[in-house]
Design brief:
Elements: H1 6-17, H2 30-43, H3 47-64, H4 70-90, H5 97-121
Helix pairs in contact: 4-5
Length: 129
């Protein structure tokens, strides 16, 4: 068996692909570096570990697509409730307990999807504002 057969070469190439050999860098001013150092101390990490973790988290978040915050999701749920409850009340239509419970259940079921679609329709990214 040869030391450099195709199987060994492929295994070595796969192993090398997992090595961290590519550098990514940026420049910070004095205030920014001070804040970074404070954060690294708080998290008990090196600058490199923290920056790598942040980059990978951002890549994962981007891959997951638009995601509404918990606050926006809950506000959207309240909005759905108001929209669906106020019209019957304003027009004097009777509302049974079952109808009310159905409206609440529907708002709970749909609030996350509606919040996400609201974010997707915005021309700017409010998640970063």
């Amino acid at each position: 068996m040869a030391i450099l057969d195709e199987k060994n070469l492929a295994a070595e190439a796969a192993k090398r692909a997992t090595y961290r050999v590519h550098h990514v860098g940026t420049k910070l001013n004095e205030a920014e570096i001070s804040k970074l150092e404070g954060l690294t101390e708080k998290r008990n990490q090196t600058q490199g570990e923290l920056i790598r973790e942040l980059i990978l988290a951002e890549i994962a978040r981007d891959a997951a697509g638009v995601r509404a915050s918990a606050e926006l999701t809950e506000i959207t749920g309240v909005r759905l409730l108001l929209i669906n409850l106020l019209k019957p009340v304003a027009t004097g239509q009777p509302m049974t307990e079952k109808v009310f419970d159905d409206i609440v259940a529907e708002a709970k079921k749909r609030k996350a999807g509606v919040a996400k679609s609201l974010l997707e329709d915005l021309p700017i990214d409010l998640e970063r504002s």
